[in-house]
Write a structure and sequence with these properties.
Blueprint lengths: L4 E6 L3 H6 L1 H8 L4 E6 L4 H5 L6 E4 L14 H11 L4 E4 L8 H9 L4 E5 L10 E3 L9 H11 L22 H8 E2 L2 E2 L5 E4 L11 H13 L4 E3 L4 H8 L4 E2 L6 H9 L3 E5 L2 H8 L4 E4 L6 H4 L6 E4 L20 H4 L3 H12 L1
Parallel strand pairs: 1-2, 1-4, 2-3, 4-5, 5-6, 9-10, 9-12, 10-11, 12-13, 13-14
Antiparallel strand pairs: 7-8
Helix pairs in contact: 2-6, 8-9, 8-14, 10-11
Length: about 350
């Protein structure tokens, strides 16, 4: 086996893992094997990343929003699974620390470790990449910059956009009647509306989603509603749309989005999954995190929501402002207009 075995870690959510895709491909261009270390919420996304050879799942006590207690047996299990890796790239957001994981990887015998770290890392890091966090850079580019600092470059011809492993599943049995455009399955057969989000602060009201579905249908679009929450998707779809709530795996969802003309979604994993399959996004974006970092990357997008609202940059999971004004003031007519702009 020529080249190093490299562990790439991104321990939070599916969207974060998808945004790590360009960095992973840069690593894989020089590595013999890439082992991706993911959290439970990111595992399915990691399985879809081109360049990943193996996925290891681990619940991080310092990254997860609902962290597990520190458990010695689980820590020791991670150290054992990381043995045999020559190098590691620890990918984090600006508010996360790479140093606890770097310590564990040192115990596993990983010889060369790279990460972004403002805190003094001592002997934990071999490549300490410094970032000016006062400048908002797209998260995918921030992680790719770390890969480059560690000596990993994208291969020639790689455009640095998000991507998924192919082939994707055949989703014809679920929505075959919508995939046929003139007898041929084609891009833009429908609009996808994804009403759920991992945090309430990023969620547009369900009633407004439902009204948007009605208006999209009236505007001549076929609509598919996706999500894990079956009660929510059933309500939003009503009698006007195809309800796929609870019926798609993450890979299935990628296939559904690939055939869509547009996704309507909050700042959540499916928005980044749409970007990874080249589908434009109407982004109902709450400014609790900066859009400059987290908006859909590399695809046409229309950003809706008051980006200067009082909750700006608060990282709040529940809106701290009564009435949730940053999103609740978006009208369904604005969404329909944005969909029209992206599909014409």
């Amino acid at each position: 086996m020529s080249g190093p075995r490299v562990l790439v870690a991104r321990l939070d959510d599916a969207g974060d893992v998808l945004l790590a895709g360009p960095a992973v491909r840069a690593v894989r261009a020089r590595a013999a094997e890439v082992v991706f270390l993911a959290g439970p919420a990111g595992r399915a996304a990691a399985m879809l990343l081109p360049g990943v050879d193996r996925v290891v799942e681990w619940r991080s006590p310092w990254i997860m929003s609902e962290p597990p207690p520190v458990d010695r047996a689980e820590v020791e299990a991670l150290v054992e699974q990381a043995r045999g890796c020559d190098e590691a790239l620890i990918l984090t957001s600006f508010h996360q620390s790479a140093l606890p994981l770097a310590l564990l990887l040192r115990l596993a015998g990983v010889r060369r470790i790279a990460a972004v770290s403002d805190d003094y890392p001592g002997s934990l890091l071999d490549v300490r990449h410094r970032v000016d966090e006062s400048v908002d850079v797209p998260e995918a580019e921030r992680m790719l910059a770390l890969a480059r600092a560690a000596g990993f470059e994208l291969p020639p011809g790689d455009d640095g956009k998000l991507a998924v492993r192919r082939p994707l599943p055949d989703i014809t049995p679920e929505i075959g009647q919508l995939l046929s455009v003139g007898g041929v399955a084609g891009k833009g057969a429908y609009v996808v509306v994804h009403p759920g989000a991992s945090a309430p602060a990023r969620t547009w009201p369900a009633e407004k989603h439902r009204q948007t579905v009605r208006e999209l249908v009236h505007d001549g679009h076929r609509v598919v509603v996706t999500g894990k929450e079956r009660d929510l998707t059933a309500f939003v779809a009503g009698d006007d749309a195809v309800d796929l709530g609870g019926r798609t795996s993450f890979a299935d969802l990628a296939a559904v989005l690939e055939h869509a003309g547009v996704l309507v979604s909050g700042n959540t994993g499916p928005a980044h999954l749409a970007a990874a399959v080249g589908t434009p996004v109407v982004s109902l974006f709450a400014p609790v995190v900066p859009a400059e970092r987290w908006a859909p990357y590399g695809v046409p997008a229309v950003l809706l929501g008051d980006q200067d609202a009082p909750c700006r940059a608060s990282r709040a999971r529940t809106c701290p402002v009564p009435g949730h004004p940053c999103l609740s003031q978006i009208a369904s007519e604005q969404v329909v207009k944005a969909v029209r702009e992206l599909t014409q």
